[in-house]
């Protein structure tokens, strides 16, 4: 190999090594930035999730759950304090929650819960409102003996889209002021 060729190879290598080091340093900085960003985002989501009551819970567990009656395309049905449709589960028996015994059921169909006596809205019969024990101080609201649930992905007030859904071994129906299934 000629002397000029040896110098080109010799001198080119340090620059290539230096470029790889700089590139590696840059890639490591990006990795660290991504880890920090994802950690921060995960912490923010966890904080938001822990601070916000679940759709079926009475706000912060201190207010009573409210059950109201609202008009829909299927007639008047029960809704929670936020206006989301309340459902009964055909697999339940009078005063018994069967959803708690089925894996994933309460994540999809959260129980309407309260730590105190539920409040009846206009035209909702107070005599048909009750509760059953879930765990600890948490109680599930019942209407005419039917444990009440919301749908986790309901984002529209008075939604009738999920009425009649067949999941977790039973059907999910809305409920009217008389305590009867609406489908």
Helices and strands, in N-to-C order? Answer: HEEEHEEEEEEEE
Largest sheet: 4 strands, antiparallel
Mean pLDDT: 79
How far apart the termini lie comes to 88 Å
Count of distinct structural domains: 2
Overall strand count: 11
Q: How many helices?
A: 2
Say what oligomer this is: single chain
What does it look like?
This protein is α+β, with helices and mostly antiparallel strands and 183 residues long. It folds into 2 domains: 1-52; 59-182, no CATH class. Helices cover 29% and strands 25% of the residues. It contains 2 helices and 11 strands. Strands 3, 9, 10 and 11 form a 4-stranded antiparallel beta sheet that branches. Strands 4, 6, 7 and 8 form a 4-stranded antiparallel beta sheet that branches. Strands 2-1-5 form a 3-stranded mixed beta sheet, with no helix packed on it. It is globular, with a radius of gyration of 29 Å.
Provide the fold topology.
Layout: H1 3-51, E1 66-72, E2 75-80, E3 87-89, H2 105-108, E4 113-114, E5 119-120, E6 129-135, E7 138-143, E8 146-147, E9 165-167, E10 170-175, E11 181-182
Identify the notable features of this structure and list them briefly.
183 residues, alpha+beta, four-stranded antiparallel β-sheet, 29% helix, 25% strand, globular
């Amino acid at each position: 190999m000629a002397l000029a060729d040896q110098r080109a190879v010799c001198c080119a290598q340090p620059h290539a090594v230096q470029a790889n080091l700089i590139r590696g340093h840059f890639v490591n900085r990006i990795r660290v930035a991504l880890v920090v960003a994802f950690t921060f985002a995960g912490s923010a989501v966890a904080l938001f999730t822990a601070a916000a009551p679940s759709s079926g819970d009475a706000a912060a567990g201190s207010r009573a759950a409210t059950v109201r009656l609202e008009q829909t395309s299927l007639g008047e049905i029960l809704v929670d304090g936020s206006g989301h449709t309340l459902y009964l589960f055909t697999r339940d028996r009078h005063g018994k929650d069967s959803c708690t015994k089925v894996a994933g059921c309460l994540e999809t169909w959260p129980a309407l819960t309260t730590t105190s006596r539920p409040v009846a809205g206009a035209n909702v019969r107070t005599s048909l409102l009750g509760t059953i024990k879930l765990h600890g101080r948490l109680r599930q609201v019942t209407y005419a003996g039917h444990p009440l649930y919301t749908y986790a992905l309901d984002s529209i007030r008075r939604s009738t889209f999920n009425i009649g859904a067949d999941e977790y071994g039973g059907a999910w129906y809305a409920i009217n002021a008389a305590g009867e299934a609406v489908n």
